[in-house]
Amino acid sequence: MSVSAAAKGVIMVPPDPGVVTLSGNLLGWTATGVGSATIGIRIDTDGQIYELNNGTPTARSTSTDWIIPNSAARTLHQVWCETTSGNDPDGGDAIDTWHNLNTDREFTLSAGASEIVTGTWNIIIRFNGGADLDNGSYIMTADTT
């Protein structure tokens, strides 16, 4: 007969979920370019959020990391992106669905020649199918005018 770990006096400690904070709060990011421009957000497996400006990732300050400490990032965390106004992302991962953070997740918006496109996106993080831990809104603008 097998004896469970609990019966042996072993205490099972769940992983530290960390403190999830998304400080979007209508944070605006803009990419400009001649002929084309792409702006986006990457929610990274390293616990950081990156602004994607014409393909170049820029780590935001630690106050905008999605989880602190970054070492608490787990593949069981999930991210959701939804459009609250304006344009949907036209690149990266699908919106309006939960994505496991076992890989980096990106949502991008592009403008062609002589146009401005803007979208406001709500990003939500949860742990393992549970309740939402936090969300933040980001205004994305790609401008080639």
Describe the structure.
By secondary structure, the protein is an all-beta fold. It is built from no helices and 12 strands. The N and C termini lie far apart (74 Å). The protein has strands at residues 19-20, 27-32, 37-43, 49-53, 56-59, 67-68, 77-86, 91-92, 99-100, 105-111, 116-127, 132-143. Helices cover 0% and strands 49% of the residues. The chain has a single domain (22-143), classed as Immunoglobulin-like (Sandwich). Strands 2-12-11-7-9 form a 5-stranded mixed beta sheet, with no helix packed on it. Strands 5-4-3-10-8 form a 5-stranded antiparallel beta sheet, with no helix packed on it. Strands 1-6 form a two-stranded antiparallel sheet.
- Overall geometric form: elongated
Per CATH, which architecture?
A: Sandwich
Radius of gyration from the alpha-carbon trace, in angstroms: 18 Å
Strand proportion, as a percent range, falls in over 45%
Q: For the record, what CATH class applies?
A: Mainly Beta
Enumerate the spans where pLDDT stays under 50 for 5 or more consecutive residues: 1-6
Helix content: under 10%
Q: Write the H/E string, N to C.
A: EEEEEEEEEEEE
Strand order of the largest sheet: 2-12-11-7-9
- The total count of helices amounts to 0
Secondary-structure content class: mainly beta
